[in-house]
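Memo to structure team: turn this sequence into structure tokens by end of day. - J.P.
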Amino acid sequence: MSGEKILVVDDEEDILELIKYNLKMDGFDPTGVLSGEKALEQAHKQTFDLIILDLMLPGINGLDVARKLKADPKSCSTPIIMLSAKGEEADIVTGLELGADDYMTKPFSPRILQARIRAVLRRQTKSPEDELAPVGIFDLRIDPGKRKVEVGGKPIALTFTEFQVLYFLARRPGWVFTRNQIVDAVKGEDYYVTDRSVDVQIVGLRKKLGSSGKYIETVRGLGYRFKENL
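Reply from structure team:
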């Protein structure tokens, strides 16, 4: 990856310049604006590969900016990473459900932000074959082509929906997904999936995975994530 155009939106000029500087050092082409209004103007003028969006903005706040970006055919498919000064659960959940691809809370590590950016951009460029790539993490191996799951080399029988939930989470370790995001990603054939029934699927998964069930973590007030490190 090199030269991808990134729009950075933050009303704190020092933070804006810090992000832009690190993006430039990492080979990206950043554009910075200090308000939601300016962000919408820039997104309408040109196409960006990714948008870093602060939530606490004067005038139009970050959530409303995200709504407008997702409603505009020109920017609806542009990935968004949200930044939240307070890290309030309600804002984060709303942001994710509005279509944000990731979020980070302030204060944040520039290196981690850059890693998240690269991860989101990789997702955007995946081929159909990548979508069926096996996942090997910790003692788990998940093969979507054969629809097989092994824990420590031993096969585990999962329902269609349990498999879909596990594969969805395990492909992006460390990423937090709301229940609604999981519902959108999982097309259950053997179970009618709702935001409430996601909890039931997680309970079943943990039980079947035994000691490996601890890899699926509950993030209070948000949803679930697959453990990133042991």
